[in-house]
Amino acid sequence: MVDSARAARLAKRISSIVASAIGTEIKDPRLEHVTITDARVTNDLHYATVFYTVMGESIDAEPDYEAAAAGLAKATGILRSKVGAGTGVRFTPTLTFVLDTVPDAARQMEELVARARANDELVARQAATATPAGEADPYRHDDDTADEDGSQE
Questions:
Q1: How far is CA 148 from CA 137, 140, 144, in A?
Q2: How far, CA to CA in Å, does 41 sit from each of 22, 46, 47, 56, 115?
Q3: CA 79, 81, 84 angle in degrees (round to 5)?
Q4: Would you say residue 8 has pLDDT above 80?
Q5: CA of 94: how far to CAs of 30, 40, 77, in Å?
Q6: CA 125 → CA 112, 130, 135, distances in Å?
Q7: Element (H, E) at 123
Q8: Digit-coded pLDDT (tens) for 62-118
Q9: CA pair distance 74, 79, nearest whole angstrom
Q10: Average of per-residue pLDDT values in the chain
Q11: Is the pTM of the predicted complex or chain greater than 0.70?
């Protein structure tokens, strides 16, 4: 039985090897803007899932996810060979590449937080100039001695 700590160490090593190979050794132009973000290995060490993100050519450019996926699919054999040589495990894990959705989810969360802050500021500005609909202080206090019908106790 293999412990999950070994699988985690292997996953970290796999992500490092794959990222290095994509950055320096594989000359596919479709992989120029691909970044390896994480890797997970099953406890039996036979399957590795490698997560990646794709950046656009500029800040305003939309990333080409299809080209990046095709480039990674084409390079999977070479990358698996490099992982086998770099890890020294008996069985080289089968690599699967998955687009990492964490950056998109984080960006959506930041947009939601910004929208909530703007709404809070709007409510605070409206509350600063608001007046009560009824009496200014509608609550009873201990110093009130009159009953509801107006008689003294």
A1: 16, 10, 10
A2: 19, 7, 6, 28, 38
A3: 110
A4: yes
A5: 22, 11, 9
A6: 20, 9, 21
A7: helix 102-128
A8: 888 899 999 999 999 999 999 999 988 889 999 999 998 877 788 889 999 999 999
A9: 10
A10: 86
A11: no
Separation between Cα atoms, residue 89 and residue 48, nearest integer Å: 13
Total number of residues shown for the chain: 153
Phi, psi of 33 (to 5 degrees): -110, 20
- First vs last Cα of the chain: how many Å apart? 82
50 close to 98: Cβ distance less than 8 angstroms: yes
Backbone angles phi, psi at 146, to 5 degrees: -90, 140
Distances (CA, A) of 79 to 8, 44, 129: 19, 20, 64
